[in-house]
Amino acid sequence: MSQPAGERSFPLPSQIATVPGAEGWEEMYPFFSRFQPEDDGRFWFYNSMHFPEVVPAFDGLTSEIPYTAIGANTARLFSFPTTLGIEYRIVNGRVYITANPVTDPAQVERRLVHFQERAGHYYANWQRLYDGWQQRIEALIAEIEAVEVPRLGELDDLEVVTSSRGYASNHLLREEFHRCIDLYSKMWHHHTEFLMLGYGAYVVFFEFCKQAFPEMGDQMVARMVAGIDVTMYRPDDELKKLAALAVDLDLADLFVEGNEPDKVLGALQERGDAGRRWLAALEEAKDPWFNVSVGDGFYHHHLSWADDLTVPFAALPRYVEQVRAGEDLSRPTDRLAAERERIADEYRALLGSEDERAAFDQMLGLCRQVFPYIESHKFYCEHWFSTRFFQKIRAFGQLLADRGVLADAEDVFHLRHVEIEDALADVQLAWASGGTELGARHWRPIVARRKEIVAALAGWSPPPALGPVPESLNDPAVKMLWGITDETVQTWLGDEELDEDTVRGYAASPGVVEAVARVLLNANDIGQIREGEILVCPVTAPSWGPVFGKIAAAVSDIGGTMSHAAIVAREYGLPAVVGTGQATAKIRTGDRVRVDGDRGVVTVLR
């Protein structure tokens, strides 16, 4: 991102006032995450895609560690020529980021030599290396699942003595907790190992198409890559199997819109052998496919399907009805695949030379090769691993609650991870000495105050960006993922006069539809969606796939052409407009709305 132009600026970080009632919020986060005086001269944008809510103290780790890994892979391992890593800051509980570019032509050239050697090795051996990645990430998941919170009884088990283990169980408290944190860090390094290379392939192909076909829209480029089945859709496929089984076992009458999961489960237990067979199939599907968060894996309170069945059970009634009606529940993958070939053939024919056509085919082939990883890794990393990670931290919280240090297991998430280590040391000492933990009087007031702070910060409306506006926003990945361009910034600044009933964004998935809006600001409320509504939200998560089967269209505040919301909408054949910036502010639940996924326009119909 280049230097500031003129006086155009968003509020400077130093001008952001503390929210009344949230005084002392800074203590929830590490010192290096806070804005510094020199940060006023840089452009930052609010990462509402990954952090749409206030970040509790423990969850600050989910920004710190990912950016540690992303930058290391981009800047230090693969030597991307024009970009280093992403820096982040937290203000009033919200995460702002900025990308660090490489602008010196000589440095770009030096980095390019290394990039071609290192990235070239991965691109040339993609499938073999990807297979190795699959084994490594599954081994990491097995490691986090194997973490055990020690039991601290009156005496250690006799076996600890007879086996001459050499250490008592209180030693394991911090070792196992450290193990959780270390595995989370290693997971994120694995996560970004292939990810940035995948996005790099997208960027090169997008830029080639933009140069060769200036009139081509981003959506058209993306549609040449679409139509591939990936692991992230497997949880939804498992739901469809369960719906078909419910019909086969004559249990369809139990799955009705608005029915609560507990009531359905209770009724199934009363339906004899058929009910037991369906419940057994549910348990089989859960591991691992229900380890998907209703969010994107960055907040402890965005529970997985395994922890809260609301989302899958909200999707089942429609699937059951479709099965009973003999409808095909599969996504239109074949149609999308045929369409992508047609589009690619049409544009290839417009190229003027064999060399250009060969380059086009090579870049498009690489994009299609990397696409399955770009989507599938999310299931293993943000969902399966992260679900297990938060469950283990919650188990440490339960131990602290059982020992009287905390009032409730969930309170552990209002402590930073280094504070949790202190709390565990207190337990280690008390158990060893035969004394009593001293932490209750220390930690409980801190937790109570932080809950007040989080509640106060939740009412703050964060500016979409901070600092001086650059001359141009030229980071292609920022555009593709977050949908942030010069035009976006102009809208944020109010430079573009828009009718109060109109919002503009990216034409992410084609089609035009009119229906009633359902505005969801909290990921945990996704179960409220009803058949045929238009989903309007800050950002969608891949795990929302099942509700894409019942909505008419999707609209999001944040996201670019290759954001997950855009990709999922295209795979389900739904109109979508992403990166609107203000849809959730302008649209209310119950409004009748027209979504034009061809032009990127959303209109409230009065």
TrEMBL record:
Entry-linked Pfam families: PEP-utilizers
Organism: Geodermatophilus tzadiensis
Signal sequence, start to end: none
Record-given protein name: Pyruvate,water dikinase
Organism placement in taxonomy: Bacteria, Bacillati, Actinomycetota, Actinomycetes, Geodermatophilales
GO molecular function, one term: kinase activity
SUPFAM superfamilies (alphabetical): Phosphohistidine domain
Coiled coil: none
Keyword Transferase annotated: yes
Domain PEP-utilising enzyme mobile intervals: 530-600
NCBIfam families: PRK08296.1-2, PRK08296.1-3, PRK08296.1-5
Keywords from the UniProt entry: Kinase, Pyruvate, Transferase
